[in-house]
Design goal:
- The protein is an alpha+beta fold.
- Helices cover about 40% and strands about 15% of the residues.
- It has 2 domains: about 210 residues, Endonuclease III, domain 1 (Orthogonal Bundle), CATH 1.10.340.30; about 120 residues, Nucleoside Triphosphate Pyrophosphohydrolase.
- The protein has 14 helices and 8 strands.
């Protein structure tokens, strides 16, 4: 248990003061874990406080309108996390009387809670002796033991989880889990790790063979899929107020239940004239005189497996367009109140 002893000693002296470390409330721990997935701590801390102000407990979150939850989440990305979080809150209230299950097995039955989040909540809140596995833990353990199996495979994950469990302080599992994650966040970083200050340097197999940068091993990434999005920012005047057509995304594609503009997606970059012709054929602009006011430069928006290449065509219509599908018109001054994907919010900020 020497490794565990040195790790916990280092953690007690070097851990950051973070608000979710001052509580064992399952709701607050769960909220922090969901927010911090693929989010930097500095940014996530602000969102954590905002959510607690708006939804101080699981019942208030369960009773909230999904659109309000998505709006508050705006800017964090991966919006399925917010939708799952809202659904889980409702499930905890409806099926568990507002009380979170007190075991990792019970927690994993809730939508959006996987192995990592369940282990984190169970170990921190209920002292369950189970190790967590996130990116920081995978990096620390894979370097410590020079694991050659890719960490993003089932075999690799099992090897690392078993090793983490072998080191686990069963009397203080929550503290141990946070210590490993903190070491990965502050010392055993992805690039330029601070090995000279690492409390586990004496036991690190990767350092002994001078192969720190070789770990963790990962399977090669796939080339992101390119998507060419031609957004139609269609505006018209009514009673001296400007309205803009907005689309609520209701399918199972990205940004479900959020708002963007009507869009024509093409296989490659297309001429504005071709896009407008498709728009007329779709019926959206059919029968109305319109003026193209501006065509934006290309916006690049990177998602985990997709690269979005978007441009925005500003169109002024004489008359009120006919609505169809999930398209509605919104007062320009009220658009900022809608839950908008970051890409759309970036462009909207440029509209005068």
């Amino acid at each position: 248990m020497t490794i565990t002893k040195f790790l916990l000693q280092w953690y007690s002296q070097n851990k950051r003061s973070l608000p979710w470390r001052e509580t064992r409330d399952p709701y607050k721990i769960w909220l922090s874990e969901v927010i911090l997935q693929q989010t930097r701590v500095a940014q996530g801390t602000d969102y954590y406080h905002r959510f607690l102000v708006a939804f101080p407990d699981v019942r208030s979150l369960a009773e909230a309108d999904e659109q309000d939850v998505l709006k508050l989440w705006q800017g964090l990305g991966y919006y399925s996390r917010a939708r799952n979080m809202h659904h889980t809150a409702q499930e905890v209230v409806e099926k568990h009387n507002g009380i979170f299950p007190d075991s990792s097995a019970g927690l994993k039955k809730l939508k959006g809670i996987g192995d990592y989040t369940a282990a984190a909540i169970a170990s921190i809140c209920f002292n369950e002796p189970t190790a967590v596995l996130d990116g920081n833990v995978a990096r620390v353990i894979s370097r410590l033991y020079a694991i050659i199996e890719p960490v993003d495979t089932n075999t690799g994950r099992k090897i690392i989880t078993d090793l983490a469990n072998s080191l686990l302080d069963t009397n203080h599992p929550g503290t141990f889990n946070q210590a490993v994650m903190e070491l990965g966040a502050l010392v055993c970083t992805p690039k330029s790790p601070s090995c000279d200050t690492c409390p586990l340097l004496f036991a690190c197999e990767a350092m002994k063979t001078n192969r720190i940068e070789s770990f963790p091993v990962k399977t090669p990434k796939k080339t992101p899929t390119l998507r060419h999005l031609n957004y139609l920012v269609i505006s018209f005047m009514k009673n001296n107020k400007e309205f803009i057509l907005m689309r609520k995304r209701t399918g199972n594609d990205i940004w479900k239940n959020m708002y963007d503009f009507p869009c024509i997606e093409t296989e490659s970059a297309s001429d504005t004239a071709d896009v407008l012709e498709s728009c007329v054929k779709s019926g959206l602009l059919d029968g109305f005189p319109f003026i193209v006011k501006h065509v934006s430069d290309e916006y690049i928006h990177q998602l985990s497996h997709r690269r979005l290449l978007a441009r925005f065509i500003r169109i002024e219509v004489q008359g009120m367009p006919m609505l169809y599908d999930d398209i509605t018109f919104v007062k320009k001054a009220q658009i900022a109140e809608l839950p908008l994907p970051r890409l759309i919010d970036r462009y909207f900020a440029t509209l005068i």
